[in-house]
Amino acid sequence: MKRQNILTGSPWEEKMGYCRAVRIGNTVEVSGTVAIIDGVNVKSNDAHAQTLNILERVEKVLEELHVSMEDVIRTRIFTTDVSLFEEIASAHAKFFKNIKPTTGFYGIKQLVAPEYLVEIEFTAISNEK
After folding, report:
1. For the chain, what is the total number of helices (H) and then of strands (E)?
2. Could you say which DSSP state residue 97 is in?
3. In 10 A of CB 68, how many CB atoms?
């Protein structure tokens, strides 16, 4: 099967030797994604905005692979503060309330930098071959 990699230009992709997403056949895996914190719309203390930013960016990555959020079957949400569950969950629900992928919500010690509160991984299965 053909492998399709999606690179986003992040310096971490080259540094670590990974890509944002990989599609092989009808399966798509999206790397752990954190928000782009701009200090205006997405702040380092706003888990809801960070989660929305991640979901909006991943939606665009999936579109490049001819996949939609409706094809997402699993999300894995990592947070440095599980008390932010309601903020994160409400943002997640804006995209997935009717789709209802399986998910996991994990409290972890830290992410790659202290300003990140949330990181999400995605798995999608496309009907298109």
Report:
1. 3, 6
2. T
3. 14
Across the range 46-53, mean pLDDT stands at 98
Element (H, E) at 88: helix 85-96
Strands (E), the chain: 3-6, 21-24, 27-33, 72-79, 102-107, 118-125
Q: Is the pTM of this model over 0.85?
A: yes
Residue 94 CB neighbours (<10 A): 12
Cross-strand bridge partners of residue 5: 22
Residues 6 or more apart from 101 whose CB is under 8 A from it? 72, 73, 74, 75
Structure tokens given for 118: 């949330």
Cβ contact 109:78 at 8 Å:
no
